[in-house]
Design a protein that fits this description.
Blueprint: H1 2-25, H2 33-68, H3 77-104, H4 109-120, H5 122-147, H6 157-168, H7 174-180, H8 182-218, H9 223-238
Length: 266
């Protein structure tokens, strides 16, 4: 309870900050992705609070109704629906908070290097993700056409796609597929695991590895990183702590020894 109160105090403070920014920037405020993320976090926080209150009221009312009418069957559908909506709101809120925390940790050189690597490789990553989606869709359609006539799990393309994703997580009923059609079932299972679990994931990791190598060579620290580094340097200097920094631009060239050199003396 105390954590929730502290959280909403911070939400109110950020509402004040975002309100000032909105007043200063006006329509330009909505052009910034960071501002939109902050606004979404605020809206989701208040929506989750209202849904939590709604769920508590509905739950107490239905429990009281059940205690007073034990001969009847009470319906907890509205409470369950409110609880499900609250769970979805909290999930999206945690997702946005994680993205915000990652953005705040960009001041760390290592984390900024990872972020810059993902930005450098985003074109190739988006292409590989598109290929993964196409392969998933192809296997979903194939499973729907082959097994949808008899197996309920593959009646629709969406349910077949969920089953294919479950195959990658190893939460899959192999027996029902092999019992229905051992040849096609075995081929689909083996080829899907090879394509998605080995080929595409290894391709995805290779793209990130190449981009990481390039980023380490051509990495440029952000302005915030340099400011934080300067602040830490000044802070440590107050206590007499000095850090030895290596000059990255200094290069050591091998000495060239010439056997047939002539020295002219004036």
């Amino acid at each position: 309870m105390a954590c929730g109160v502290i959280y909403f105090i911070l939400v109110i403070y950020y509402m004040y900050v975002q309100g000032k920014l909105m007043k200063q920037q006006k329509w330009a405020y909505f052009k910034s992705k960071l501002n939109l993320m902050e606004l979404s976090i605020i809206l989701l926080s208040w929506s989750a609070l209202f849904m939590f209150i709604n769920r508590s009221i509905l739950g107490n009312w239905e429990i009281e109704y059940y205690q007073n009418h034990k001969d009847q069957f009470p319906s907890f559908y509205e409470t369950a629906a409110a609880d499900a909506i609250l769970g979805y709101l909290i999930a999206f809120l945690v997702l946005l908070a994680t993205v915000k925390m990652w953005h705040m940790l960009r001041l760390s050189p290592k984390l900024h290097l990872i972020t810059a690597t993902l930005q450098r490789a985003w074109t190739d990553i988006s292409g590989s993700l598109l290929m993964i989606i196409i392969i998933l869709l192809a296997y979903s359609i194939a499973c729907n056409l082959v097994f949808g006539w008899k197996l309920y799990k593959y009646k629709t393309i969406l349910s077949a796609g969920i089953a294919v994703l479950s195959l990658q997580l190893h939460r899959f009923n192999y027996d029902e597929i092999l019992d229905y059609n051992s040849v096609l079932g075995g081929f689909i299972i083996v080829s899907c695991i090879i394509l998605l679990s080995f080929v595409m994931i290894n391709l995805f990791m290779a793209i990130n590895r190449v981009a990481f190598k390039q980023e380490r060579i051509h990495h440029k620290p952000s302005e915030e990183e340099e400011i934080v580094h300067l602040m830490f340097t000044k802070f440590f200097s107050l206590f007499g702590i000095r850090k030895k920094e290596e000059d990255k631009d200094q290069r050591h060239y091998p000495k060239q020894i010439g056997n047939n050199t002539s020295v002219s003396k004036k």
